[in-house]
Amino acid sequence: MVSDKGYQVSNLAVSGYNLEQYYLFLNRHINKFKNIKYIVCVICTYNDLTGIGSNVLYGKRKPYFKIDNNHQLILKGNNIKQYCLRNILSRSLFLNRFQPNQGLIGTFLSKIAGDKTLDYNNDPDENGLLPCVMIQQIYNLARSHGAKLLIVLSPSRDDFVKATIRFRWFQTIFKESISKNNELEIIDFISYIKKEDVDKVFNLNDIVHYSPEGHILLAKIVYEHLFETIK
Prior knowledge:
alpha/beta; Rossmann fold; 2 domains; three-stranded parallel sheet; 8 helices; 39% helix
């Protein structure tokens, strides 16, 4: 779709990553690309904040961030060993059934594995602040390379029955982000899906992932936005 206009798309998506890992992965690889016009960040409102402020996601060890008193991000646990205890536990067909910090066994395994999760009860402001600061960090990274940042809010099928708590939380976060940065570009994809047959947009019996038709719709919406603004 973009090649006729002299552009190309590089897909840096990684299955299972969340917002923190978006930033770390992009920061690691962005210097490989020249003349970047846009960075498009498609965020799944259902689970892309899962694990933010935690060093474990899908049962495996990952880096995480905290915020200091000056609202600056502090990277924690970046030097991860492939065979650390948390990763070994995730390879066990029996033990990986116990979710970190859930139930007696899951809580015990988390304790011995050194799992850490931001305590939102002690730091309630960080519940919304950490994603906002992370989005701003991604924006700053894009701008430092002369690129614009476009964020696409990708909903789940459940949001078309009733706006889920996660989706309403996302909308609150992004309203706060926009109020702090009026150059942040956002597409709320849910408004476009409402005009279509929801069952055709999503995979059968899948509340998160799109069908081929859904991916084409998303691509067209992003394409139209980009070429309305690219000069």
